[in-house]
Amino acid sequence: RFKPPSVSEKMADASMMEALATSNDWRVRYENFLKFRQLGPKVIAQQAEALEGFSRSRYPWMRKLALEAMAVMEPQDLAMHSDVVAARLKDTDDDVCYEAIRTMKRLQPDILEKHAEILSRLLGDEDWNVRLAALSTLARLDPLKLCFYSEAIKERCTDEVHQVAELAQKIWIRLNELPHRAITCRREESCSEEVRITCTSMAGNELTVVSILQAATCEELRELVAKTLSVPLLQLKLLSSGSQPQELVGSIPAVDVL
Prior knowledge:
Blueprint: H1 7-22, H2 26-37, H3 41-46, H4 48-54, H5 60-70, H6 75-78, H7 82-87, H8 94-104, H9 109-112, H10 116-121, H11 128-138, H12 143-146, H13 150-156, H14 162-176, E1 181-187, E2 194-201, E3 206-213, H15 218-229, E4 236-240, H16 254-257
Helix pairs in contact: 1-2, 2-5, 4-5, 5-8, 8-11, 11-14, 13-14
């Protein structure tokens, strides 16, 4: 049961925030930040706007402490400030960036999904701690949503750092257990340099028509169809039409299979 803060707690809260905002002594600010984090998620949520300001401080240590305090909030309260936290994913200071990722991990998957793209870019960061934290946070997404970042995850399966590679491999195995979406491709007659491909579902419904160059590979066709249909590449399985369909994979020219 929630217990409203007492008068003395409110005064302590106000005193801390004043010290954080006005003191010229970094030690006073630092000590008050540590005390402030102990006041609990509800009190911190009431001061979230002030923390947003501190997260944009010119001092990296202050930005980091602000993010640490925001991470104490309940996920539903933190969600209202997720854009502010996400902005720190681009921070030039590795420690601040790392703390932003850790704070993002507190978010519910549906909120986290909004910031998944920028998190996926951090999988290539020079700092392995950042790579590992980004990978761990992305892993909280629904596998069907995580599939859209499968290529970036696959690259980390051979990461030079064992912890990163091990986690990436576990996620990769989980993604490959998802059901595939099979699509049949039929080549249309064409007199130009481009070839029209009609894509149909296994039920025979036409999904889309795409055009590729004569020299385009099966993999390039897969990427084009995946992008056109907004389907994760990992889930897409292309088959040629006819009585003996073949899977369209690799660097073989698509027209040779179709």
